[in-house]
Amino acid sequence: MDATARRRELRRNLAERRRALSPPERMMAAQGLRRSLEQLPEYLADNRVAGYWASDGELPLNLAIQPLAARGQQFLLPVIGPGKRLRFAPWQSGEEVQPNRYGIPEPVAPRELFEPFQLDLVFLPLLGFDRRGQRLGYGGGYYDRSFAFLKNQVRPTEPLLVGVGYAFQELPRIEAETWDVALDFIATERELIDCHATRQDSQSNP
Q: Cβ distance 145 to 17 under 8 Å?
């Protein structure tokens, strides 16, 4: 089995395991995720916080989103733009959404759209991750294309990229592709992982 086929099989297995979670399990994970994110100062203070609309078993962000408005922070959802890149639209609970080409809800007639470089903090969905910040996505490359500009910058910087997933989605190691954009942190229902610290440790202890 070649590398592409292995990734495809891995994606399928992780997606099936995620879909098998019960609603109470998802709610408990959402509570744990919020506790993990509260360890991240940027979550408590950054102005523009982008996330995702959980679908296909993804870890829900609803409990993490709730406190943002009270703190004066703005929450945004991704909108598929030209060139298979993402832009981000402000969204509040109760506002209308409509499914995009993948069936994922997007804000309807957004009043404004922000480019990726205009964001402060981004929560990214994923199928798998390792502690060095490598992300196994869905194969479309939308996030890697949208945040490719970060590859030329000293990290961490803005926007801060935080992968969100269940603890069981952790993998021993994901081999990076040339187009992959590494994550700054991983937040699960159990912990907040500093990927920069892990990468430094792995470099000093090969």
A: no
**pTM of the prediction?**
0.95
Q: Tens digits of per-residue pLDDT, 92-142?
A: 999 999 999 999 999 998 989 999 999 999 999 999 999 999 999 998 999
CA distances from 199 to 36, 53, 131 (A): 20, 29, 8
Q: Cβ atoms within 10 A of the Cβ of 91, count? A: 23
What gap in Å lies between CA 204 and CA 180, rounded to an integer?
Answer: 22
Domain count, the chain: 1
Structure tokens at 146: 């949208």
**CB neighbours of 142 closer than 8 A, spacing ≥ 6?**
78, 80, 84, 85, 86
CATH number at residue 152: 3.40.50.10420
Determine which helix (DSSP H) or strand (DSSP E) holds 88, and give its type and residue range. strand 86-90
Sequence length of the chain is: 206
Domain containing residue 63: 3-204
Residue that has been written with the tokens 């030209």 in this structure: 82
For 17-28, what is each residue's pLDDT tens digit? 999 999 999 999
Residue 45 phi, psi (nearest 5): -135, -25
The C-alpha angle 173, 191, 45, rounded to 5 degrees, equals: 115
